[in-house]
Amino acid sequence: MNLMTNSRLEAHRDHRREWQNFDYAYPVLSRRSKGISVGINLNPDKVCNFDCVYCEVNRKTPGKRSDISLTQITQEVEELLDLVENGLLYEANPFRDIPSHLRRLNDIAFSGDGEPTTCQEFPLVVQEITNLLKSRNDSKTKLILITDSSNLLAPHVINALEIMMANRGEVWLKLDAGTNEYYKEINRTHVPFEKILHNIERTSQRYPVTIQSLFLRWNGLIPTREEIDSFANHLQRFIRNGSQLQALQIYTVARPTPELNATALTLKELKLIEKWVLERVPSLPIEIYEGNA
Ligand code: SF4
Description:
Layout: E1 2-4, H1 10-13, E2 25-30, E3 35-41, H2 70-85, E4 105-111, H3 122-135, E5 142-147, H4 155-165, E6 169-174, H5 180-187, H6 193-206, E7 209-214, E8 217-218, H7 225-240, E9 245-251, E10 262-263, H8 267-280, E11 286-289
Parallel strand pairs: 1-11, 3-4, 4-5, 5-6, 6-7, 7-9, 9-11
Antiparallel strand pairs: 2-3, 8-10
Bound molecules: iron/sulfur cluster.
Iron/sulfur cluster is lined by residues 48, 50-52, 55, 57, 114-115, 148.
């Protein structure tokens, strides 16, 4: 088990997807990236095809805009890359206090206030960012897609993934449940659970992927042993069918959410879930990320 406990830095707690007057790009200190991640919010309108009980996005206030400007995204990302490179980012809050070993750019992440793969311009943005990195002779920064796994087989997403995976791409796929009932309860979506499972299996047969699973206390209850067994059974089947699962990230609620009944699990509870998963998939590398509470 790899346990990520360095969670008390102000910058780790501050995951606002905004930077000054930018509409799309934002810097975060990411525990899972172990450094700076420049996010690109492909859903500035805050529209998502999931409605997870733990979602931090406050949808009671309107989004910034609903269009995608390739020119503006590229300009904003370039400005942030400059700020990381010349160190000026670390003179601004909340990045002042971060230790030197975390003062590194790890990735550019396609994420945001909704599901990035619902954006039809997604492959165009990936191509623009790839071109930008090439023009800066940057051969280190990763490109990460953080997705709810609902659209992985859509043609424009297949197209985007091909570009990403040829350019240090990583895919982080959400899977928060083992059964259809729990999935419906936690992710609150009309996308069928079977589709999510199929998408994950097919994509991970093609590319190495990271599964990211948020487990939480919901209405006072932690996921049951039966739920986690079903979850682990899916992972076991994926591996048996040729999936390349690089790692499982188990994390929990880290910041306040609009749903007050969605709260963090304790480290002991997260480790119990890890133990249950490992009983079925003992070879799977698991990383645990505690909440900040
Ligand atoms: S998929 Fe992500 S953005 Fe969409 S509701 Fe869930 S947590 Fe929020």
